[in-house]
Amino acid sequence: MAVLQICRFPDNAVLRQKAKKVSRIDRSVQRLIDNMIETMQQANGVGLAAPQIGVPLRLVVLQMPREEPIVLINPEIVKRIGEQEVTEACLSVPGYYGEIKRSASVTVKGKDRNGKTIRIRAEGLILIVFPFRSFP
User: Fold this and answer.
1) Is 61 within the bounds of a domain?
2) Which long-range contacts (CB under 8 A, 24 or more apart) does 59-67 make?
3) Relative to the CA of 18, which of 27, 48, 55, 58 has its CA 20 to 30 Å away?
4) What CATH number is given to the structural domain containing 103?
5) 11-25, 32-46, 81-95, 115-129: which has the highest mean pLDDT?
6) Is residue 6 situated within a structural domain?
7) pLDDT at 131
8) Does residue 10 have a cis peptide bond before it, meaning omega lies within 30 degrees of 0?
9) pLDDT tens track for 90-130
10) Based on the structure, what is the number of domains in the chain?
11) Domain-embedded: residue 50
12) pLDDT at residue 7, as a whole number
């Protein structure tokens, strides 16, 4: 595994592009997932999207404290409930915290690293860490 460089906003154009759908979950995607998890952990982050490391794909890794990493390939929000204002930070904008309006709860559908369809209902901290730029 390798620790990858995290792109900084606004300097990297990939952070402003629409991420593309992952077409096949092959060895290169598995390696990318492993590297993203390693990068996120080394940066003490709880969420990382592929565009944040310069890869314009719809791929997200998340890891809550003391839990196993979650991989979402081609995630999409299928349900939103309510609205709340939360304070967020981002690995691509170090040192900056801002108030953001988000849904109070979302249901996200995607594939895990084995290609199995998964659904996650997110609220609280896990909702805040979703890197939404990788979602359609």
Assistant:
1) yes
2) 59/19, 59/22, 59/29, 59/32, 59/33, 59/134, 60/110, 60/130, 60/131, 60/134, 61/33, 61/36, 61/37, 62/126, 62/129, 62/130, 63/37, 64/125, 64/126, 64/129
3) 27
4) 3.90.45.10
5) 32-46
6) no
7) 54
8) yes
9) 777 777 778 878 788 889 999 999 999 999 988 776 666 66
10) 1
11) yes
12) 87
Q: Rounded to an integer, what distance in angstroms lies between the CA atom of residue 13 and that of residue 23?
A: 22
The span from the CA of 63 to the CA of 46, in Å, is 5
Measured distance CA(60)–CA(99) in Å, rounded? 22
Residue range(s) defining the domain that contains residue 109: 13-134
- The pLDDT value given to residue 135: 58
What is the rounded average pLDDT of the residues 41-58?
92
Evaluate whether residue 3 is within a structural domain: no
What percent of the chain lies above the pLDDT cut of 70? 90
